[in-house]
Amino acid sequence: MTATGPPPAKQSRPKALLFDIGGVCVVSPFQAILDYERAHGIPVGWVNAAIAAAAPAGAWQRVERGEVPLDDAFFAAFAEDLAAPEEVPGEKARL
After folding, report:
1. Which domain holds residue 52?
2. pTM above 0.85?
3. How many domains does the chain have?
4. Which residue ranges traverse the bilayer (predicted)?
5. Which end of the chain is less packed: N or C, by CB atoms within 10 Å?
C-alpha cells in the first residue's frame, strides 16, 4: 500500500530548551541550605540573604546565568559574598 498526499513536513529542531530545575526536577535547594546552616551553626537565612544582597552581580547570580563556570574561582567569589555581613540586611546589628 502506498501513502497518498504530500510527504510529511520536515520537523525542525527546537532553538532552546528551558528548565526550571530547583524544586521542579529536583528537590528545592532551600531545604538543603537550611540544613547546612543548622548543621554548621550559621544563622538561619544567612546564606539566602547573602545571595540576595549580592544581586545582581554576585557569584551565585553569575553562575546561574552561565556567565562563569562552577570552579574554584566561583567558590572564592561566593565565599566573599557570604563573608560580607554588612551587605546582608539586618546582620550587621547581630555582629
Report:
1. 45-94
2. no
3. 1
4. none
5. N
Nearest to 48 by CA among 7, 91, 92: 91
- pLDDT tens digits, residue range 33-86? 999 999 999 888 899 999 999 999 999 999 989 999 999 999 999 999 998 766
- What cell was used for 13? 529542531
**Cβ neighbours of residue 8 closer than 8 Å, sequence gap 6 or more:** none
Q: How far apart are CA 84 and CA 76, in angstroms?
A: 13
Handedness of CA 83, 34, 22, 70 (dihedral sign): positive
Domain membership of residue 31 (yes or no) is no
